[in-house]
Amino acid sequence: MEAKVFVIDGKDGYAMATLPPLLRKGDTIGIVTLGSPLPADEINARVQYLQRMGYHVVLGRYVYAENGFLAGSDEERASDLMAMFANKQVKMILPARGGVGVAGILPHLDFQTIRSNPKIVTGYSDITVLLNVLAQYAGLITLQSLLLIDFNQDTPDYNFHQFFSAVSTYRTAWTIQNPPGVPLLGKVKGNAAGPLVGGNLTSFVGTLGTPYEIDTRGKILLLEETHEPVNTVYRYLNHLKLAGKFRDCSGIIMGECTNCQTAYGKSYDDVIHELLVPLGKPLLTNLATAHGMFKAAIPIGARVQLDTLNETLTVLEPTVSRQAQKWL
After folding, report:
1. Residues 30 and 149 reside in one and the same domain
2. Of 88, 131, 251, 294, whose CB neighbour count within 10 A is largest?
3. Would you put residue 300 in left (φ > 0), alpha (ψ -120 to 50) or beta?
């Protein structure tokens, strides 16, 4: 199937936003494994946690599958995702984990069916490739937020509050805030507005030159990374720069680089200062994201206002529709 980019206001870019119905207690959550496998006992423990929270859960046919570093074939993983979109009872699709391989399912997705059956889709790490593609090709606002692995007693309250505020409350606008004591830092002062795109740096570099590479034209670009030495982070950021992704974006947000080791005396902050600050785009850093202990809920595809003078990030549109009561 040939991917189609929808058109908005006569320009290539994201389709008009399609909002999924909000999630309420008693709703059905579909679990899929779209990248690397997760042991069955971990899947089962976290499913039980969701059930104790008051949700019904359905599992994809291949959710327990293992094929080396992948959870089944590309076609099998894609078929599980499409089955969840086609299931009228499923309100939210929750991937088990990220890992690697999510890009492999993209050619097997039916974006027209997805657009006609909007669901909440959430995740981070390699899942952010899917989140951005769903926003770009189906107009679906998605969330860089929790995965199935995060539904356990050790997850900070901040993460759950961020998540359920995003998926279970209708809000026309709100400000994304870090946990107390963790400041947002405006490195290049200015203002920018546009749809928010981004997620995991390594994953996006892997899609460059494909039909699914990230579109940053007029967008606010968010990036984060984990477990990479800083010289590799520099390489990937420079690759995005050479590919025009920083040239095309309106503003930049750098999330955490979790467990990223200093290399040759250079830190993550050094790379940001030396590579990104000179670009002159409004630049905000230190956003609690994805692989870090604290995870803000980031709506991919939603329009946001980036104000690095006041060090704020404001979401300008709803991420779910009004079709249920808000989560309490």
Report:
1. yes
2. 131
3. beta
Give the predicted TM-score (pTM) of the model: 0.92
For residue 5 the two structure tokens come to 């980019």
- Does 321 reside within a domain? no
Known catalytic membership, residue 250: no
pLDDT at 17: 76
224 has catalytic annotation = yes
∠ CA(247), CA(249), CA(107), 5° rounding? 105
As a whole number of angstroms, the distance between CA 73 and CA 279 comes to: 41
Amino acid letter, 234: Y
Residue 327 in any domain: the answer is no
Task: Determine contact, residues 114/286, Cβ cutoff 8 Å.
Answer: no
Catalytic residue among 76, 213, 224, 256, which?
A: 224
Q: Does the annotation count 56 as an active-site position? A: no
- Give yes or no for residue 5 having a pLDDT over 60: no
Helix or strand or coil: residue 83? helix
Contacts of 214 (CB under 8 A, 6+ apart): 132, 197, 198, 204, 207, 221, 245
Alpha helices in the chain (DSSP H): 40-52, 74-86, 111-116, 127-138, 157-167, 201-205, 230-242, 245-248, 268-271
3-state class of 281 per DSSP? coil
Radius of gyration over every alpha carbon of the chain, rounded to an integer in angstroms: 18
With bands split at pLDDT 50, 70 and 90, how would you rate the model's confidence at 326?
very low
Same domain, 201 and 263: yes
The active-site residue out of 79, 125, 203, 250 is 125
Domain that holds residue 105: 7-171
